[in-house]
Recover the amino acids of this structure.
């Protein structure tokens, strides 16, 4: 029997279909060609190259798990593998794909009218139109139902007023999915960003997800026609179930970041010499590497299992919380441990570890904090809510 692969110790690759491996290989090649040579510069400069959107569209990953409108209708596992490879490059690139496909496009596909789907989805799949998802507000992150953004009727039109915060893709978006209180309850709106009264300004001085655009959206009496309303969306169920689509991608993506950190630490440990020996020959370093490997492989198996459940129609919101809770926590610990293996080199952008570690701090918080997902799983197993 051949020795176990240090990057696939449990032979998880054998559990994938040929088509799934092909998707993974195509995305990995794209990341190797178009992301890895430049991403440290993007991170340092705090930019996301807008032109990458069309390239990702050509690759076929924007809304790849949706059906029709030039979307591939890929399986949940194939989409997850794409997220893993994208985030092995950088969380910012995977975040762009997640926000575009699993939030903005999914909201239109699931809750929109046929006219809205026909108008937006194919162009978004090609990356010609960039979308964002405006739910979170500065004072209402974990409690989005308390949002202050309000939509009021004015004849046959709607007038939106309020602000949204921590919105990925905000200032480069052509269309925003905005959620607002109304006299009828929470409603969703498709808001072209050229609408009078709409503006976006980027969050400055952030030290995480720097190769990603994060913005504040301001809606200053934006007038929208009735056709802008997502007709099937009423109440918090619509935005929250849409968020589950993006959270599912994070479960896989976090393992991409973890793999890169582990692989970097492993290679470094085999080549870095101290006391006339590679540091990988020291017991304490081997312990770190083994713990990284175990958590990375467990998390990848968890992601695959949840993906198979999703493809079978058996995945529930609490399962997504379970996966996000475990995999982001594990990935962050792997990144921190890998940084320790690299010593002083671990804090420079010459190596990818500190970049991934900083990015994972955002994953730990966004799309539901660690604490919120803990309470979701707690409620699922006890039947008792601890939210109030």
């Amino acid at each position: 029997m051949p020795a176990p692969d240090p990057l696939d110790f449990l032979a998880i690759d054998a559990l994938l279909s040929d088509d799934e491996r092909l998707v993974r290989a195509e995305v990995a090649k794209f990341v190797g060609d178009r992301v890895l040579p430049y991403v440290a510069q993007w991170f340092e400069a705090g930019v996301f190259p807008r032109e990458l959107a069309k390239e990702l569209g050509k690759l076929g990953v924007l809304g790849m798990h949706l059906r029709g409108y030039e979307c591939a209708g890929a399986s949940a596992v194939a989409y997850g593998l794409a997220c893993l490879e994208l985030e092995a490059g950088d969380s910012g690139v995977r975040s762009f794909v997640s926000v575009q496909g699993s939030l903005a496009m999914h909201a239109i596909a699931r809750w929109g009218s046929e006219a809205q789907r026909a108008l937006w989805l194919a162009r978004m799949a090609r990356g010609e139109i960039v979308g964002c998802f405006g739910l979170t507000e500065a004072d209402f992150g974990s409690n989005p139902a308390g949002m202050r953004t309000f939509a009021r009727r004015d004849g046959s039109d709607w007038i939106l007023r309020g602000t949204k915060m921590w919105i990925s893709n905000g200032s480069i978006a052509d269309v925003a999915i905005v959620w607002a209180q109304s006299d009828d309850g929470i409603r969703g709106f498709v808001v072209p960003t050229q609408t009078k009264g709409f503006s976006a300004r980027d969050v400055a001085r952030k030290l995480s997800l720097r190769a990603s655009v994060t913005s504040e959206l301001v809606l200053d009496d934006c007038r929208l026609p009735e056709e802008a309303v997502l007709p099937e969306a009423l109440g918090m169920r619509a935005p929250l179930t849409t968020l589950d689509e993006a959270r599912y991608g994070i479960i896989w993506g976090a393992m991409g970041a973890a793999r890169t950190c582990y692989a970097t630490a492993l290679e470094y440990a085999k080549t870095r010499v101290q006391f006339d020996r590679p540091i990988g020959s020291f017991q304490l370093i081997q312990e770190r590497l083994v713990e990284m490997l175990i958590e990375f492989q467990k998390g990848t198996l968890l992601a695959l299992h949840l993906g198979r459940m999703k493809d079978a129609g058996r995945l529930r919101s609490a399962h997504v919380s379970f996966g996000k809770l475990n995999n982001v926590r594990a990935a962050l610990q792997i990144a921190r441990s890998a940084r320790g293996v690299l010593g002083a080199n671990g804090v420079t952008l010459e190596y990818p570890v500190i970049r991934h570690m900083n990015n994972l701090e955002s994953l730990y918080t966004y799309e539901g904090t660690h604490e919120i997902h803990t309470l979701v799983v707690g409620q699922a197993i006890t039947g008792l809510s601890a939210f109030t």
Q: What stands out?
A: The first strand starts at residue 67 and ends at 68.
